[in-house]
Each structure stands twice: as C-alpha cells, then as structure tokens.
C-alpha cells in the first residue's frame, strides 16, 4: 500500500500532471458553464416569457416554441458530452498515461 501511495504522490507533484489537471478542469468548467447558461436561459424564458414560448411554430400547429428549445438543450448536452469525451480520449488520457509511465519507470 505504501508503494502505491508514494507513486500517487509522485504523480500528483509532477508539474506536467498539474498542468494537465488545470487544462482539463478549465475545459470541463467551460463546457459546464455553457450548458448551465443554456439551461437557465430556457428556465428564465419559461418563467418570464411564457407567452412567447407558448407561440406555435406555425399557424395551426400544436407544437410551440418551447418544445424545440427544450430538445435543443438535450441535444446541446449530448454534443458537449461528446466533445469532452473526444478531447479526453485524444489528448487528456494519452498525456496522463505518458506522465504515469514517466513517473513510474
């Protein structure tokens, strides 16, 4: 157990690892902030402009503007998740593996 604790400490103290964690956290925070802003904008539109959100998409339609906006939030969430996973797989994970190999050799 002590061997693993020392290895973890070495990795955590590595400047490349700290830079990677900072870069990953900034990216995740930016994507999270984007989805939170979109979601709360949707909620605020529902709360303060229900008349606008209730407008039909076209004359005679029962689907109002709120439905595509709500679906857009769901699609945006899926897209941002896919963006994060793609960057994690291509950049963050290989760099973390390289740091692990470097520190543990």
TrEMBL record:
Record keywords, A-Z: Membrane, Transmembrane, Transmembrane helix
Superkingdom of origin: Bacteria
TM region(s), chain numbering: 27-47, 67-85
GO cellular component: a single term: plasma membrane
PANTHER family: INNER MEMBRANE PROTEIN YJCH (PTHR38598:SF1)
Protein name: Uncharacterized membrane protein (DUF485 family)
